Amino acid sequence: MAWPETQSPERNTVRHDSRGDVAKNRRCRSRRQAGFLIECRDGHAFSHAAQKFLSNVTQNMIRTYGNEPYRAAVIHGGPGAMGSVACIARELSKVVGVVEPIQSRYSLSELTDELHEQIKSVFNEPLTLIGHSWGAWLAILFAVNHPKFAKQIVLVGCPPFEERFAPQIMERRLARLSPDDAALFQSLLSELSGEGRSDQNVAMKQLEHLVEKSDNVDTFDIETDKTDLFPADGTMYSAVWSEAAEMRRDGRLMECLRKITIPVFVIHGDSDPHPLEGVVGPLRKCRADFTCHVLENCGHSPFRERNAHEEFYRMIETILQNNQIAHT
Question: Which domain holds residue 289?
C-alpha cells in the first residue's frame, strides 16, 4: 500500500528470484544460519524472524523475478511500504526480468544512492523504472541523479508535484470516510508527523486499514502478500516524507521534473484521491515527453483493483515491449 501524506562499509546484498535461488555474500550466510533468511519460491524472501529484525537486514537488498537480463525495476511506495509491489514484479516477470529494490534508508539522498547500488548490482544498462505512489517520486529523483540507468519511467498513482494540489488529497480521503474514521485518520497523521508522538509503527498499521477505505474502489486480496510484505516502517515514513514534502513546497521537485528527458508514462485511477491534474499539469509545464492513461473504476493501487488490474498489466507489458499506450 501507499501511505497518506502528512503536512509537514560492507555491503549486504541479497538477491532472490522467482525460482527460489538465493545469492548472498558472507554476512548474509551468517544471518541465514541464524534463521533470518530462508530460501523461497516466487520471490518470497523472508521468514517472520527476518521481518522482526527488518532494520538490521534490509540494507541494499533486492528481490529478483524471472530471467536475466533484468529490464524493469518496480519501486514501492510509502515511504516504508516495503514489499507492497512484489505482486507487480511477479506478474511482469512473465514478460521480462524484473527487480524489486527494498528501501531501507531514512533520507532522500541515501535512498537514491541505495537504489543506484541495488540496480547496478544486477544490471548495468538503462531500466524501465515503475514507481507506485511515493515510489513514483523516487523514480524521478533516481532518473535525475543516475540517468545512465533510466530508460523510461512509469508513474502509478503518483502524488501531485506541486503543493497547491496537496490539500485536495485530504479533502477527498476524509469525504470517503465515516466521521469517526475521519477523526481517527487525522489523529494518526498527527502522531506520524510528531505531534503527540506514540508508537509510529502502530499508527502506521492503523492507517493501513483507513487508507484501504479512502483510496480504493473494489480491491481483492493478493495471497502472496502474506509472505511478500514487511512490517510497515513508521520512522521511515516520517523521516523521508517530511523531506520529500519540503522538496515539493520549495519547488525543488519541479526543478527535477525539468531535467527529465526520457519518456514518462502516467497510469492513474479515476477514483484515486491524488489529483491527476497535479501530475500531468506539472509534466506539461516542464515540457516532459509523457503519455497519460486513466483507469476507470480504479483507486490508488490499480494492481489490487478488481475492475482495473488486467488492463493495468496489459498497459505495463505494452510499455515494456517498447510500444506506446494511447493518450487519454
Answer: 66-163+239-320
The answer to whether residue 195 sits within a structural domain is no
The SS3 of residue 16 is strand
Query: 116: domain CATH number?
Result: 3.40.50.1820
DSSP 298: -
**Tens digits of per-residue pLDDT, 18-75?**
433 333 332 332 222 222 222 233 444 444 444 444 434 444 589 999 999 999 999 9
Alpha carbon 200 to chain centroid, angstroms? 19
The pLDDT value recorded for residue 56 is 40
The count of domains in the chain is 1
Asked if the structure places residue 124 within a domain, the reply is: yes
The answer to the question of residue 287 being in a domain is yes
Residue 197 dihedral angles phi and psi, to the nearest 5°: -55, 135
Q: Is residue 169 part of a domain?
A: no
Q: β-strands 127-132, 150-156: how paired?
A: parallel
Whether 137 and 164 have beta carbons less than 8 Å apart is answered as no
Strands 97-102 and 61-65: antiparallel
pLDDT in tens, 231-278: 878 888 889 999 999 999 999 999 999 999 999 999 999 999 999 999
Cell of 194: 510528531
Cell numbers for 259: 531535467
Which strands make up the sheet holding 97-102, listed edge to edge?
A: 22-24, 14-16, 61-65, 97-102, 70-75, 127-132, 150-156, 264-269, 290-295
